[in-house]
Amino acid sequence: MAITNTSVEITINGMLHSLDVEPRLLLVHLLREKLGLCGTHVGCDTSQCGACTVLLDGQAVKSCTVLAVQTDKQTITTVEGLGTIDHLHPVQEGFWEKHGLQCGFCTPGVMMAAVGILEQNPHPTEEEIRHGLEGVICRCTGYQNIVRAVQYAANLTESSAVESEVAASNIHREAYEGR
Ligand code: FES
Ligand code: FES
Fold first, then answer.
1. 3-class secondary structure per residue, the chain
2. Do residues 112 and 62 touch, judged by C-beta distance below 8 A?
3. 64 in ligand 1 pocket by Cβ < 6 Å?
4. Are 124 and 150 in contact (CB under 8 A)?
5. How remote is the C-alpha of 115 from its chain's centroid?
6. Atom of ligand 1 nearest to the CA of 52
7. How many whole angstroms separate alpha carbon 47 and alpha carbon 61?
8. Does the global pTM surpass 0.85?
9. Which of 44, 95, 106, 112 to mutate to test the pocket of ligand 2 (most atoms within 8 A of CB)?
10. In this structure, how many other beta carbons lie within 10 angstroms of the beta carbon of residue 156?
11. Residue 11 and residue 29: Cα distance in Å, rounded?
12. Which of 23, 73, 146, 153 could share a disulfide with 100, CB 3.0–4.6 Å?
């Protein structure tokens, strides 16, 4: 029996995509094979390794366990949507500064899991970071530098939030003082 495709509208990395997809198509295959977003990797294909982690409406999910049709009208961020080479996302900067990556196969998924942790909790303790990273398995690193990278990103985000608050209060003060 022929399988009828389903129309979906998904915002991926800030761009709205209108697509016809097979109901059985996994999100990871939509991203990689139909949209060419190959930064999301397939490791185990059984929901254990986390290499396929993306953000779905701000929450880290394993895209090998999500059907593409389930993401209709939702927002997805993949590693390609995090930052640019000139403007790294704080988590990418953290991985760079703290050597949080090794061979790189699972690094995109680990970074997306890290972003998911910080989305839910911008000031995680070391224990909370380790707990949040439980769903990602990397065979070539030891996690300590990854934890440091997430701490770096949390501190960076906090200090830039403080800087923008200071800048905003300076603007208000200058406006108040008529400068
Ligand atoms: S490929 Fe999805 S969890 Fe391993
Ligand atoms: S970065 Fe190489 S296996 Fe994880």
1. CCCCCEEEEEEECCEEEEEEECCCCEHHHHHHHHCCCCCCCCCCCCCCCCCCEEEECCEEEECCCCEHHHHCCCEEECHHHCCCCCCCCHHHHHHHHCCCCCCCCCHHHHHHHHHHHHHHCCCCCHHHHHHHHHHCCCCCCCCHHHHHHHHHHHHHHHHHHHHHHHHHHHHHHHHHHCC
2. no
3. yes
4. yes
5. 5
6. 2
7. 10
8. yes
9. 106
10. 17
11. 16
12. 146
Beta partners for residue 59, in sequence order:
56
pLDDT in tens, 90-120: 999 999 999 998 899 999 999 999 999 999 9
Sign of CA dihedral 58, 103, 134, 52: positive
Which tokens is 91 given? Answer: 């988590």
94 is written with which tokens? 């953290």
